[in-house]
Design a protein that fits this description.
The chain is of the alpha/beta class. It has six helices and ten strands; from the N terminus they run E-E-E-H-E-E-H-E-H-H-H-E-H-E-E-E. The strands form two sheets. Strands 6-7-8-3-9-10 form a six-stranded mixed β-sheet, with helices on both faces. A four-stranded antiparallel β-sheet has the order 2-1-4-5, with helices on one face. The longest helix has 18 residues. The protein binds adenosine-5'-diphosphate and magnesium ion. The site of adenosine-5'-diphosphate has 11 residues, from strand 2 and helix 1. GO terms for molecular function: ATP binding; ATP hydrolysis activity; transmembrane transporter activity.
Length: 245
């Protein structure tokens, strides 16, 4: 593959749910590209298909039509076991609901990725986990079980888990959605700087406009279509007596 080719190219993606009159067309002819080291933010209201798009791009949900070329390979033409292996090797995920194991400590959640996922030695796993915990500002919380951590701490563990294996692509579904902005900002800063430093491509979906400054590109999803036009703000009826700005 040429070095200049985008790391990910999605073309003419379609995906619907249900059939016949009941069918909901969630993605209609969606195309996009992303280079390594870039941050793409996909915005759209709740129910607009952001999670569906992320799942199709990351090999979790097969599109009805269209192609995802990633590092020169056609993701949806791979055999399932190859796609699974490709995902494990190259993709990191951060979900809104954290998806941590409540009874494992912060350190154990991360060690698991390296020991089970990569077969690393305990010593190697400890060292790498130690480094990332420090980076996340969690060194002193490593011994606590996930259910003792605050929302912001849990999400930082989830970010660490996604970044530990230095993935080429990171998919983050509303990573700041359940956090107050102080913690939300820490999370998006971490994701962005990790993408820059490691040359990973980062896909973030969300609807918080405060994420915009962290993105290299912003696309909007509405009615199944992706555009780079900013939709007009929702019309607001001014309250009587109030001067509209
Ligand atoms: N597995 C599914 N089965 C049926 N409908 C689904 C499924 N997943 C998503 N949808 C529908 O697709 C639309 C988009 O959902 P989603 O991608 O979760 O949107 P968003 O992440 O932007 O909130 C919604 O109308 C949702 O109900
Ligand atoms: Mg969603």
């Amino acid at each position: 593959m040429s070095r200049d080719a985008p790391a990910l190219v999605a073309q003419n993606l379609h995906r619907s749910f249900g059939s016949g009159d009941e069918a909901v067309h969630v993605l209609c002819d969606v195309s996009l590209e992303l280079d390594e080291g870039q941050v793409l933010l996909i915005m759209g209201p709740s129910g607009s298909g952001k999670s569906t798009l992320l799942a199709v791009l990351s090999g979790l949900l097969r599109p009805d039509q269209g192609q995802v070329r990633i590092l020169g390979e056609d993701l949806w033409r791979m055999r399932e076991t190859d796609r699974e292996r490709f995902r494990l090797r190259h993709f990191g995920f951060v979900f809104q609901g954290f998806n941590l194991f409540p009874s494992l400590t912060a350190g154990e959640q991360l060690e698991m990725v390296v020991r089970w996922g990569e077969g690393a030695s305990r010593r190697d796993a400890r060292r790498r986990v130690g480094e990332i915990l420090e980076r996340l500002g969690l060194s002193r919380r490593a011994h606590l079980r996930a259910d003792r951590l605050s929302g912001g701490e849990k999400q930082r563990v989830a970010v660490g888990r996604a970044l530990l294996k230095s993935p080429r692509f990171c998919f983050a579904d509303e990573p700041t959605g359940s956090l107050d902005w102080v913690h939300g900002e820490q999370v998006i800063e971490l994701l962005q700087s990790a993408a820059r430093e490691r040359g990973a491509a980062l896909f973030v979906v969300g609807h918080d406009p405060r994420l915009v400054p962290y993105a290299d590109r912003v696309l909007h999803l509405a009615d199944g279509r992706l555009t780079d036009e900013i939709p007009p703000p929702a019309t607001q009826t001014p309250t009587p007596g109030e001067v509209p700005s």
